Amino acid sequence: MSLAELLAAAKSSGRPLAPGVVSRILGDTLAGLHAAHESRDLKGSPLEIPGTCSP
After folding, report:
1. Which among 36, 30, 38 is positioned nearest to 52, based on CA atoms?
2. Domain limits, the chain
3. For the purposes of burial, counting CB atoms within 10 Å of the CB of 34, is it exposed (0-12), middle (13-18) or buried (19 or more)?
4. What pTM value is reported for the model?
5. For residues 36 and 52, is the Cβ–Cβ distance under 8 A?
């Protein structure tokens, strides 16, 4: 299930997402963003990953 599908299901049911679900989605998103910013090539240089946000 995609995030869009999950949000649509929550909206159609009239119930918000459980706080634990929201926390997990946010935590996983931030972990992925951190990993993208910390990624390095084989020589140890930071990767230039387009489309990422800066803090």
Report:
1. 36
2. 3-31
3. exposed
4. 0.70
5. yes
